[in-house]
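Notes from the pairing session

We agreed to fold both candidates in a single pass and log them together. This is the raw record for the first candidate, unedited. Please don't reformat it; downstream parsing expects exactly this layout.

Candidate A
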Amino acid sequence: MSPIPRRTLLKAAAAAGAAAQFSWTLTGAGSAQAAPRAARAEPVTVSWLEDGRLGAAPGSTLGVPWPKGVHEPDTDFAITAADGKEVPVQSWPLAYWPDGTLKWTAHAVGPGADAERFRLAAGTPAPPEKKLTVGRSGGRITVDTGVITAELGTDGKHLVRSVRRGSTPVATDGRLVVLRQGEPDDGDTGSAKWERFDGEISGAEVEQEGPVRAVVRIDGKHRKGARSWLPFSVRLYFYAGAESFRMVHTFTFDGDQDKDFIRGIGVRFAVPMRDAAYDRHIRIAGAGKGFLTEAVKGVTGLRRDPGAAVRAAQVKGQKLPDPSTWDQRVTSRLQYIPAWGDYTLTQLSADGFALRKRTKPGHGWIPAGGGGRAGGFGYVGGVSGGLSFGLRDFWQKHPAQLDIRGAAGDEAEVTLWLWSPEAQPMDLRFYHDGLGQDTYPKQLEGLNITYEDHEPGFGTPYGIARTSELMFWANAATPSADALVAQCDTVRTPAQLVAAPQDLARAGVFGGLFAPVDRTDPAKAKIEDQLDFLFTYYKDQAEQRRWYGFWDYGDIMHTYDPDRHQWRYDIGGYAWDNSELSPDLWLWYAYLRSGRSDIFRFAEAMTRHTGEVDVYHLGKWAGLGTRHGVQHFADSAKQQRISTAVYRRPYYYLTADERVGDLMRSLVDSDETFLAIDPLRKVRIEPYEPDPHALSIGFGTDWSGLAAAWLTEWERKGPKAEKAEARLRSTMETIAAQPNGFIQGSGLYDLSTGRFAVASAPKVEVSHLSAMFGLVEMCAELIGLIDLPEFKDAWLDYCRYFNATKAEQSARYGKDFGSLLLFQGHSRQDAYAAAQLKDDKLAARAWQKFYDSDGFTRSWTWERTEVEGPAVLEPGYEHPRISTNETALFGLAAIQNLALVGDKIPAKP
């Protein structure tokens, strides 16, 4: 990805994509008719996701969609506050409509964005007051925000060589560290040895360079001696005029689960300590607004009093008066006051942190306090400056830890541990011994009792990843208490600009399958109450059941066990959900139509989790995800339906997050994974060996995942956009050409041509799962983008006949579809077909299947049942019949039915 110039971001991107001409007719979302260009471009309202405006880290980036035909690719954009003040903004394209006009754009603002609400429209952007610049020389990259200057490494161990304010270094030697041990701490011996690996840079690239925002990506592995492992990818974000910078850190596990136990993984900086010990300050956040507020050499609480002014200044972090002005009974004995140089805060569970300190190595630790959920934030420095540092989701992704070492010396060392060395080592071994399931028949029997699809060697963590977010401030002096609270709040909840639901819906993106929340009709209001009930239930269950932890946070459970009053966390395929039946989409569509911050943050955590932990990024299964299970990587079903880009697209386009963009781009060639593994290997009757010219690929869960990656690459005009476009068109054409279209179920795919072989004979092969992993959403988008009537007809047939009677199915296809499930979830296909065909009977069937088939029907009781000990660990409430499969499908059906046939909803459902 080449650097993006300052004022010509959109023009440069448009020029890069000018060679790609598209012959397909652009059509309206969900329509096959060519749409005229909009008469004028309406401005978009932009505001903060949460209250609090920009916060303590000036800088926020958002994505905004535009209706087709509104903005040419060379359009510049301006942001204006409600009071008319122009706000500096940097803009660039995220995606294009097929006619070349802008579909999604990204916009970065800096310190001037201090209003509550803004207006985004075409116009000349205001320049930042303090210009951000990026330089490259001598094997280093220098970023100057106008307030701080960061020198970044392009090789060696130091990702951030220094951060300065003017000529004063505030932090140096920013690097990555990993602690490994070769065996677990089982038993009483505790004799395992640790070894340290340091991050070593393999490459660095400037991805953006101002004028408002700069992004630098640094890649490498952790090395000790001859061994190099644990690939990392770090992005550093800088905004014009800011004294802070953000880090997004990703590592991928490529070790041996039986031999490589991570004892700690962290980010480390050195902080020069220039001030007298009594003018050096330690600040560590506890729960809420709580802080440990201390000096390295404290002068409060002593037997002799240095004076009220001296004591007050030290607590406030201000420079103390000259010691010659103090009570000399203190001044003459300063050497006898201990200097506390080392501090550690550990958060080993979601519910408790402990804080301790010591004077220096070789001496005992002193308890300094504790509490529930720490903010994951601290400060070390003095009156001449220091470093604030924070780790987002600190307690949610426990075990985590903050270390300060050597603050009494010339240089302090700060380590933010993403995995605490004081916790048990990271143990990624498979959780059982196989239970004798050494043949496919035995494994199918196991599936029939625990619902776990087990196969030896498949329950491996090799290739899974995790992304963490960190913030740093290079302060000119010790911040005030209020400033520290604001910085900590920013670490917990970074400021996020968003467009209003009305503007998101007006653009016609994501298939046009959502509309802003409307409670004007009693029947609609009732459904809104039910949607709210379900989201609140899962949000509360995450807290009540403690769905937290480094590898788990962001996921939810699959199925409930009413006998134990517990989710089935320990039973095969009933445990972690791993995106089964699209809860990710339910949450994102729920946000798009409501603008609710709590839904956004819940969906954000899920996107971070499911795109990293549930998907392989290295190895033979790279590009595939793992079916739901007791461990996120445990099940042997490795499939496109979990890794699909359809689950990542909303977050990427709403935030322009580069890491999620990487994840989707890595899937463009994932059609090749069908050479590595056959998803149906255990249940095939006929002989089958993967052939690159005849790969068996399903038109449902398989193709929808491929199509999502190809669509995203095509509309982003990425490096493989031409291939992605061709793959989309050729597979759509050859699915439509099958004797029974989508009802054919699957086809033989040629990797070299990107086409399915057209079967010589019709067959009926329909599964209730085929359309429930993003196929509905992908087809709606593609039909709205590509004028291919045969494909549209094939999809509408699938939509019309899934919920039809067996007699209707037989009359159309010569046989019925057999025993099916998930009719409520499929009601949204009735609604889509009804809207396309303007068919009131189909609209009526959509609502009938929604209310009276399966899932959460009209007879469902929406109530809470209180539970307490000894039946449960933590008192709370339950709804024993709620499952995530039904929740996700009800949510998507409700949202899409309301958008498509809401005007046909029965008055008395």
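Candidate B (folded immediately after A)
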Amino acid sequence: MSKLLYKIGKTAFDKPWLFIASWIVIVGVVIAMIGSNGIHTSSEMKIEGTESQKVLDKLEQELPEASGGQGSVVFTAPEGEQLNTPERLSAITAAINSVYELDYVINPAELAAAAAAASGASPSGEASQGDQTAQASNGQTANQADAGAAMAEMPPYGPLIVDGMPVPGMLIATDGSVALFQFQFTVQQNSLPAGVTDSVVEAVTEAEKGTGITVLPSDSLKSPEIPIGINEVIGLIIAALVLVMTLGSVVAAGLPIVTALFGVGIGVGGAFAISNFVTMTSFTPVLALMIGLAVGIDYALFIVNRQRRLIFDQGLTAREAASRAVGTAGSAVFFAGLTVIIALCGLLVIGITFLSMMAIVAAVTVFLSVLIALTLLPAMLGLVGERICSRKAREKSSSKSSDKQHGVADGWVKGIVKFRWPVIIAVVAILGIAAIPVAEMKLGMPSGGTANLDTAQRQSYDAISSGFGEGFNGPLLIVAEPKDTDGTITPQALAGIVQDIQQVDNVSVVSPLGVNENGTIAILSLIPNTGPTDAETKNLVQELRAADSAIALNHNVVLGVTGFTAINIDMSAKLAEVFPLYVGIIVILSLIILLLVFRSILVPIKATVGFLLSVLATFGITTAVFQWGWASQIFGADTGGPLMSFIPILVTGILYGLAMDYQVFLVSSMRESYVHGYRGKQSVIHGYNQASRVVVAAAVIMVAVFAGFIFTHDIMIKQIGFALAIGVLIDAFIVRMALVPAVIAIFGDKTWWLPKWMDRLLPNLDVEGDKLIAELNAKDGANAHKSH
């Protein structure tokens, strides 16, 4: 491996423009594809195989008009005033009519007319499909009186009446301070063409002009956007400062930034280029940007730092030092990148499309970062030449003794080695305490109720909760089917089902929305008493789905539950189910790679145990901040709520790969010291001194890049950025820089023990470049002999 990379590095150094031009052409192709295909992102997060998705898929086949997404808008009056004045009612009605005239929005009036015409031709006298669809469009207005009669007391709201007629889809609070407009699209929101939701928002906001009304569109009408802003640039600036401090040269510091931008430019740009052909969520490229920037800078830093050390310590030319750096540090970069790619690709076994797409884009970006570090970087080093180290830096380096160069690191590692047992106990205790909140971690999807107080989504959520009840923020769609294949659901049976569901605990309102033409599927809308992320709502969904529930047995039906709230509940359950399998796969594969790299039994096991400690502490701290609200305002979150349901899997995979990066670079340096003759504690101290500075710099850079995403407005990106930043901080500085040298110091040379049969079986990858160096030294000796 090291010999091959050495040749690649030397070729790239000698022919820089060939390699640079090749990568520039690739960037040009990506830009051309984006210009041709455009950028298309979606809010779709479909979870195949879940109960809610199965119900939606069936509705799309049997009753497509009932499977469309729902939008809602809240109208509020100024404090102490009412909406039901003539001017305001006129403005609201005009805005609603404008929405119903838009494409992809179901118009109840048109459907009612079609239903009336169709019902006269119906021989059975039953409601036709068009009539049922009209019911579906304004079920919560047409059925409100019946639903209210079934309740012990009348709800504090009712239909909005204008000129003696109810306005389709409108409810108004009894005090007239807030009104809720609910309507249905012909398709799910993620299938709507670009601009449809923007047109809806534009139409309803017309009601604000000159009326004093405040219009608050719900989160479902928010157009998908790419949550990338100025905060990520701040992270890059911090990374650049760290690079200058570490490498001591603006020229040397600029190379990792440039190569990292090439990697994410091609990776993220390539994802955008194909977004017209695949379904891609708005934060899929953000994940690739996060990881691509972090690993791209770090991998280039390791190689540039190794080149400069070879120049300073061994007096090599820039050409020879660059080639050897690619051959030695480049081998560690290759295997470090491989662990990250494996951790990301492990997400594919889960079988969730949007997570798989995120994993693929991020893994390809990491692969590009590795490839660029091994080809483009040495080419750019070839252009820089001997200027990679200034004359002043060379003189300064030669005037320093080895001990003074590593004064801080040397003192730190010697203290760790001397007090190894207290260090191990302290690390385990600190991380154990930090992990305590994990026991109360709740998973779900961010909603309007967890958005910041100054956002329209949160204000809409609060207005709906105060005017109509928190359950109106998360309605459930109930689908009833007869258990018998030849059975049907009659109007009388449907009425009985509605009455029985109304008696279930935590049910506020049940409204029948209709039956299909064959009478084999009945649709109902259910409003819970509790909010979308409450445990009581989850229990209600499970109770309704139970095959042995009283409703299912009494009416001989099967009840399915779907809707945004049910989909989120199913997503959390699905991810929790596959999490152990995912962790098992990536751990086993990574253990094999670490076994090959370090040729040791202990090192892979120790690395994995250390990671488990750091990841539990990471989730504990993340839970305390975003769920409990501890110091959350510092990070731009003023409301606690559940963690994203896919954060455990996503963060665990990414952090495992990144943790193994630091494991590879730090411990490979210790093994290199052992291979070159250092023994026992001295191999730990010498190896630590050689690698610690660059590992610390790499970790600071990675934390800075991830932290830049914490202050974005998107709560999902905010949580991911925080978890990754705190995870790298814990793993790099507590586990790798303290726990690892302490444990290796205890085992000493036994750390590198490997059974003889396994030693013969495993291929020698020469990650430390020992064979390469021996071959190069032999050549140098032969050349010196010839010259004499």
